[in-house]
Fold:
Amino acid sequence: MTQVRLLDSIFTRLVAWSIAVCIVVVLVLGALVGAKFEQLSTATQEAAVNADVTTLAEAYREDGVTGLARRINERLAFSAPAGTAPYYLLVDNDGAIITGNLRGWPEGFDVGTEPRSIALPDGTRVYARAMMLAEGKLFVSRESSLDEMILNEIGFAFVAGGLFVVFAVGVAGRLTTVRLSRRVGRVIQAFQNPDEKRLEQLAKDRDAEDEIGELTRQTSETLNRLNHLVDSQRETTDLIAHEMRTPLMHLDSRILKSLKTAPDDATAQGLSEARSDIRGVITMLESLLDISHSEAHRGDPRGLHPVDLSDLLEHVAEIYEGSAEETGHHFEWEIAPGVTFLGEEMQLTRLVTNLLDNAFKYVPKGGTVILTLAEGPLITVSDSGPGIPYEDRDAIFDRFRRAKGNDGSSGGSGLGLALARAIARRHGLDIRLKPTMRGATFEVGREKAKAEESA
Structure:
């Protein structure tokens, strides 16, 4: 049975796309939240530094440098939360330090009206602003590492949350994929083996309210109708065969009675030819019915049972060995032991005998016919006859296609190989004409797709 690999399943692809979308959404949201937090953090830091500068400037206007230094020392006396420590530096016009918790003026930092982010000599990142005083310069800054830590925590939270979402979607998708694949698998199995039990199970799908449930129910009803049509077609063809065969056999019996009245030679010859034609029509009719029956049941396991091909071909070979001695042919066979196959014994027998009859028909007296059976199974019938003309090779298995014999005439009804192919396909096998330098070689084995799957 052909099965879709899990990696090739449409449900697996949907889950993969869902996971990819989740990852993209988490990344985009993380980037947006991070950018927004960074923007708010910058605005907050700038506002805090500007407020600090404004307050200190007011203290300077009221009490001068002495009051400003006192206010700075008061602020440094308070313990600030980690990552938000303030940094001050008050210097006179000569650059001498009046007060503050920095050892020197940050290199390259000039007086400005807007705070900006800089790195202090020890590597600490701060938002800073400097202002010019009549008696010196004031440097004000606040550490920004807390906001960076918070931003990192937010990033970590999004990564962890994203991984959890991806894992949850993956697990839920996996469970859903397995469940849906099983349901679709039942539909596929019903198409491959439409037996009544499997179709009854489809009709009782517990999840029949969704789309797949509707597909399952419709599949069950459709295959049931097809089975009924096939059964009706088989009954009709069997009835036609019976209705046509019976009068033909009665006609043959009347001709046989006429022959027993000892007519003249010309009449007897005509009646014998008529009997031969009638039997040919009966044989052709039976072959056509067998072909239709086999094609109608192609892929249907009903009626198939384990068959010991080795034993079956041994019996066929023993029968043809005696016939070959009478016709002056050499017949050889090589049968691998213990080869079994699921099929109909009578049909498989007819498949092999049709190939052998075809070989003995076209191989001249003294020629060789070989029958082999190998594991697989692989049945081969080869001969040393004239072979199949190149222009007939593509159509040799068509109905009413006759290959020319040694004398240039066409024998038979042209249904032997067509029936052999129909029987082979009914059993999931393929019959092939193998290219050879001499004679003809027919191989019967598993269809290529099924052989590759078994391998």
